[in-house]
Design goal:
Length: 388
């Protein structure tokens, strides 16, 4: 039974590193169903519920400090890898498909909330807002929105399960749709000449990082996180624009600015950011209990209905604007699956689409937090009196 901080702190990075290491070493098929980050969350949650540590004031203080410090540092590192000019260079038609995919996700979530708000728990609108953040961006956006809107730890497992299960099924569907592309394109009247695909060079990577690079980026990210929090404390706040919101915003902007400087070419921000994300998820999971899992089946159902509505709305928009199947699939998965899966899908369609998929996933990462907070504002206005 752990009751002091240092054993707890030693266990968190260990738990965060187990499943990413297993995936890289053995490449088990189980990781294609649930990614390592979900296994990390479930594993640490099981340890927490099993009573491996006690939520003493000392440990609770460490959990709050780690969460508040790691989040802006993580977002800064993720933004450093984003190239806004390259994203804008992919062309207006590609960006239009991406925008339609995002719009269909947000509309679907709003419709599902209107249908199920009477039976969802009081935090249902917060849960769907968090889901909208990860389905337009990624896990880091989900964590950011969770912290800003105050989603409880007990409600988070339902969101993660719905995200993982719906995403896994959607990946399987998309990888099997290539043979239907000609029929879909004929139905939408899409231009099948390939002229709508910008000819981009491969996305440049920063190369492998050494110990010095990782320590450099870790220290810089921590300084940016601390500076963002200090600036946020000086800003006016409101119901949605909280001090955490300002901190996230400042860290994001600094990361995007650094991305346009020679400093961004130093190896390490991506790998350091991935490590911080795994650690942050482990810390969040360590605060969990099973009190919110009673709503998991209902919320998973909401997730699947949201996915079906997203597919239907996007298909209608594709018909209206004559989008082709490849760009629709990539734009959807770039948001719901992120940079880990969208390029793989693109490679099965056409090699020229791989860098586009990466750039669209990066764009989702940039706007995901904003979209999640926007949906929180919309859904909270639709919530029954006294909800949340």
């Amino acid at each position: 039974m752990i009751e002091t901080v240092w054993p707890y702190l030693a266990l968190m990075p260990l738990a965060a590193g187990v499943f990413p290491s297993l995936e890289k070493r053995f490449q088990w098929r189980v990781f294609t169903v649930l990614p390592p980050i979900v296994w990390t969350y479930l594993f640490v949650t099981a340890l927490a519920v099993g009573g491996l540590w006690t939520a003493t004031p000392e440990i609770q203080g460490a959990q709050r400090t780690l969460t508040s410090q790691l989040l802006p540092s993580l977002l800064f590192l993720l933004m450093v890898t984003c190239d806004l000019r390259a994203i804008l260079a992919v062309g207006p038609r590609v960006l239009a498909v991406f925008a339609c995919a995002m719009l269909s996700i947000l509309l679907a979530i709003m419709l599902v909330y209107l249908l199920f708000r009477s039976v969802l728990p009081a935090e249902g609108w917060k849960m769907l807002a968090a889901l909208s953040a990860t389905w337009t961006g990624g896990s880091a956006n989900l964590v950011a929105v969770k912290q800003v809107i105050g989603l409880s730890e007990s409600a988070l497992p339902s969101v993660l399960l719905a995200d993982a299960l719906c995403y896994s099924l959607w990946v399987l569907v998309l990888f099997s749709t290539g043979s239907f592309a000609s029929n879909f394109n004929r139905w939408t009247g899409a231009d099948r000449s390939g002229r709508e695909y910008p000819q981009l060079s491969a996305v440049v990577t920063t190369g492998p990082a050494d110990v010095g690079n990782i320590l450099l980026w870790l220290g810089l990210s921590m300084l940016v996180g601390l500076g963002s929090a200090r600036l946020a404390a000086l800003m006016p706040t409101s119901t949605m624009l909280t001090q955490t919101s300002w901190t996230v915003l400042f860290a994001t902007v600094v990361g995007l600015v650094i991305a346009r400087t020679p400093l961004a070419r130093i190896p390490g921000p991506a790998s350091t950011g991935s490590a911080l994300l795994a650690l942050l998820v482990a810390v969040l999971a360590s605060q969990s209990n099973f009190h919110g899992l009673a709503s998991a089946p209902l919320f998973i159902l909401c997730g699947f209905i949201t996915m079906l509505l997203h597919i239907g709305i996007l298909a209608v928009l594709a018909r209206v604007f004559r989008f082709d199947l490849y760009l629709c699939g990539i734009s959807s998965l770039a948001q719901i699956g992120g940079v880990a899966s969208a390029p793989v899908l693109a490679a099965t369609y056409s090699p020229v689409l791989v860098p586009i998929a990466v750039l669209l996933a990066m764009l989702g990462l940039i706007v995901g937090t904003g979209m999640g907070l926007f949906m929180a504002s919309v859904l909270s206005s639709l919530a029954p009196m006294g909800a949340g």
